[in-house]
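We modelled the chain as a single entity of 263 amino acids. Its sequence is:
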Amino acid sequence: MKRRSVFLTVGMVLASLSGEQASGDSQEATLASDKALRNKHEMIKKYEVFLKLAQQCEECQKIKHVLTKAADGTKRMNIADMLKLEVGIKRLQSGKRGRGDVTYKDEYYTIQQLVDLEEDGALNDSEAYREALDQALTKFERLYEGYLKQARGFKALLLDLIRQWADQRERKDSMLIDWGKQSAGHESEKFRQFVKSFKNLNSFLDDLKMFVGDLRFTCEQSTREFVEDMQQRIDALQEQVERASGESISEQHDNANSKKDEL
């Protein structure tokens, strides 16, 4: 009897351990599922932001250039890259929730805040000033890298569009024109030569943001195709989220029933 009792006890322990292992695996699977669901929610939010931006541009003006019609609807006009550049510039200038990305003496600032401090003469540490300006320029260079690769494919057209835009917007002295003239691969080098202050940089960013917005607004077909693509992606993700949520509820119900049976 004692021997049988020992076997029963061992069997119960092993069964308990097996149940704990299964429970642990189930918890890990649930956590992975929850993480995937959160990622999908984040992607939906991101796509909705781009969708909203693409559908509105209250201060935009169409660039009156005959070649825009030929370029619209082609791979040259990548609306996603334009929107990423616009959003990135706004964040660099104004920060995210008021917090900037550039440090000066271990404090974070937006470009606009640094412009104000510069004008007030508060950036009086020359070494820290150079480091902060270099940081800002580097962040911008990383930001426009994707757009620049796209733009190099139609450099001559882009410069014509910039000139036409500058005439329409009365920005004939814009640094954007000089930047557009630079040969492929030398944009960053020349850019750093004529941007010597945060005021210069902020003015350039204002012009580039406005130009890209106007160019996007001009390309109606490309924008329409982008909006349709974004909406399809959002709809597909929402369907996946709803299906996953339904499966999760069903699984929770099954687990609850299983625990009842064990009791």
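As a brief sanity check on the tokenised model: The two ends are 27 Å apart (CA to CA). Residues 2-52+232-262 form one domain.
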